[in-house]
Write a structure and sequence with these properties.
Blueprint (H helix, E strand, L loop, with lengths): L4 H17 L6 H11 L7 H16 L3 H11 L3 H14 L12 E4 L9 H16 L3 E6 L9 H14 L5 E4 L4 H13 L3 E4 L3 H10 L4 H4 L1 H13 L8 E4 L14 E5 L13 E3 L1 H11 L4 E5 L6 H10 L6 E5 L11 H9 L14 H7 L3 H11 L10 H12 L4 E3 L1 E3 L1 E7 L4 E6 L9 E6 L2 E5 H5 L6 E4 L4 E9 L5 E7 L10 E2 L2 E2 L3 E9 L14 E9 L10 E4 L3 E7 L2 E6 L1
Helix pairs in contact: 1-2, 1-3, 1-4, 2-3, 6-16, 8-11, 12-13, 16-17
The structure holds adenosine-5'-triphosphate and magnesium ion (MG).
């Protein structure tokens, strides 16, 4: 029975959706069940339609996932894809409390006091995913209110890092852009009796806060009003006065014991030079900025939990709109410092020279090491929005990355600690080697071989006279002697022993003697053995030979050195190991 075009299209859409949702393969029985469910009026005809449905499913399954997606978009524009996208996100992140479609505004507020790391990636990606999930907006706000710490270099590094991650903010701003407004809210809060200028010494403030006792400055409203003009007018010097929130000095939550809202910092600011001296603290700037920027959902890491009360109290007293505050756990790894506070000292004291050192979890280092942004996003989403303080294994990030780069990494040969091998009777010839076992698009290379090779010491060490090994993609050889040369270098002599590929024969990578370049691979290891103990062997170097083809690759190329590991070409004769 010929099927009518509308029904055919309907079946195609169901099949495509099913396929796209399952990585490119639709299942006939699922499609049949869906069809019957959606078109009960055609139930009576289903017998005659089954073979049609099966044929359609078969045809669709021959298409690539990308082609399936575009065909689906063609047949059912927008609606289906969008719905599917939301479903996919929701699988990962729970819905946001109080979220209204197209009205959600999130923000990622890094302080430009260092390079962004994978912890920032977690925050930024979650912020972005939520903005996209609800068709809302993402704000990137540089929280630059401490001129002692901020540098232009860091603003750039953060923007660069996010760009690489594929996080695209809809709005980019600096908290310092709003400095006047923040001053005005500060004054207003003092005028309303919600804050005061305190001229006590830091020691006294500290002591009284610990004991839960208010100081003189808090008591007299007239003093507060007199001092506010002096403060913003510039009569006080650094450390002579701060603005404090009038909280509750006896509150169990010490964050409410009159915390600092403004302090005087006499230092040039990267955006405002010396024009500003009175700077808001994070505690003051964050709620005001979130509120006036229209942020509906402010997500932040759990360590701020105690300060949530303060956040809302400030907005309450100023009668400003309150966003939802949502917490998630900080991302940390065993042995790897995921915090500027921990990384910066390592750089400053020279333990680590650069922010892109491959041992670091900074985005620039992860990029340099061969991680790809898609893997980081997948990893972050796989963690979800938990509050649990568990450290995920770094290996799970590696596994996600491996899956993505495996199909695109060239398979090449590197031999660590090379040992010479003479193959008696080894013919002079040109061999053509595939750059990838399954993807012919990655091309081939031709290598001239003769009777002299290098293999790695690790492989050589296990050999005994009489052993047979297979030189990958070449032929089998049988070891005839193992000698130490005068200079104590190991050499191996072997003879060719046919071309039959046997499961039991060890297959090892090799380099033809006339095709070598000196090569080095840096292998990053965990920076810390324990919480405090720095791992002095955290950067291992493997020295050896690579085939000359490697010298034609540009920095940034992703390769898999066969039986060694995935690496990213870093420079002329050096690569960095991404992971095994
Ligand atoms: P650091 O310890 O690296 O200095 P920070 O929290 O001071 O961290 P910010 O630049 O203030 O760094 O952070 C910007 C945003 O990124 C904040 O919302 C913060 O919660 C989030 N963030 C920072 N580090 C992590 C992390 N390790 N895991 C998850 N989110 C993080
Ligand atoms: Mg911070």
């Amino acid at each position: 029975m010929p099927i009518d075009p509308d029904t055919e299209k309907f079946i195609k859409i169901i099949a495509l959706k099913n396929s796209v949702e399952h990585g490119g393969k639709a299942q006939s029985d699922v499609v049949i069940a869906k069809f019957v469910g959606l078109k009960p009026e055609l139930r009576s005809q289903i017998k005659s339609l089954i073979s049609e449905i099966k044929t359609i499913v078969q045809q669709i399954n021959t298409l690539s996932l990308a082609d399936q997606k575009s065909l689906l978009e063609e047949l059912a524009p927008g609606k289906v894809a969008a719905k599917k996208q939301i479903a996919e996100h929701q699988q990962q992140l729970p819905p946001l409390e109080g979220a209204v479609q197209s009205k959600v505004v999130t923000r990622f507020p890094p302080e430009p006091n260092g390079y962004p790391h994978i912890g920032h990636a977690k925050a930024a990606i979650i912020d972005e995913e939520y903005a996209r999930m609800y068709g809302g907006k993402l704000i990137l706000r540089f929280d630059d209110t401490n001129p002692l710490n901020e540098k232009l270099e860091y603003y750039d590094a953060i923007a660069e890092g996010l760009k690489w991650l594929g996080v695209k903010p809809d709005i980019i701003k600096n908290t310092s852009d709003d400095i006047e407004l923040l001053h005005n809210y500060g004054r207003k809060l003092i005028e309303l009796g919600g804050a005061y200028v305190c001229t006590c010494s830091q020691d006294i403030i500290h002591d009284l806060r610990a004991r839960g006792i208010a100081c003189e400055c808090r008591r007299d409203p007239a003093t507060a009003l007199d001092r506010v003009g002096k403060l913003f007018g510039g009569s006080y010097k650094q450390n002579e006065a701060i603005v404090r929130f009038k909280g509750d000095m006896a509150d169990q939550n010490t964050a409410m014991r009159d915390p600092a809202l403004f302090r005087i910092i006499e230092s040039d600011h990267p955006k405002l030079a010396n024009r500003v001296r009175v700077w808001p603290t994070y505690d003051f700037a964050a709620p005001i900025e979130d509120s006036i920027d229209g942020v509906t959902h402010a997500l932040r890491t759990k360590e701020y939990e105690l300060r949530n009360a303060l956040y809302f109290a400030i907005l309450d007293r100023l009668s400003l709109r309150k966003p939802y505050l949502i917490e998630f756990s900080r991302l940390e790894f065993e042995g790897i410092p995921v915090s500027k506070r921990k990384i910066k000292p390592l750089i400053e004291n020279g333990t680590i020279r650069r922010w892109d050192d491959p041992r670091l979890p900074t985005l620039t280092a992860l990029k340099r090491r061969g991680f790809v942004p898609e893997a980081i996003r997948k990893f972050v989403l796989s963690l979800g929005l938990t509050l649990a303080e568990t450290k995920p294994p770094f290996e799970s990030l590696e596994a996600l990355n491996r899956k993505i780069i495996d199909p695109i990494s060239l398979r090449l040969f590197f031999v660590k600690n090379p040992v010479e091998m003479y193959v008696r009777g080894g013919p002079e010839m040109e061999v053509v080697l595939k750059n990838h076992p399954t993807d012919a698009n990655l091309g081939m290379r031709t290598v001239k071989v003769g009777d002299r090779f290098y293999i790695s010491e690790d492989d050589a060490a296990g050999l005994k006279v009489g052993n047979e090994i297979r030189l990958i993609e070449l032929y089998n050889v049988k070891v005839t002697s193992i000698d130490w040369k005068n200079d104590a270098r190991l050499t191996i002599t072997a003879e060719t022993s046919g071309n039959e590929i046997r499961q039991s024969t060890p297959k090892i990578q090799w380099i033809a003697k006339n095709d070598i370049i000196d090569y080095k691979v840096m292998i990053p290891k965990e920076l810390y053995m324990s919480e405090e103990e720095y791992n002095t062997h955290s950067l291992e170097i493997s020295q050896g030979f690579a085939e000359s083809f490697v010298s034609h690759l540009d920095p940034g190329a992703l390769v898999q050195f066969v039986r060694f590991g995935f690496c990213r070409i870093d420079g002329n004769q050096v690569a960095i190991m991404t992971h095994r």
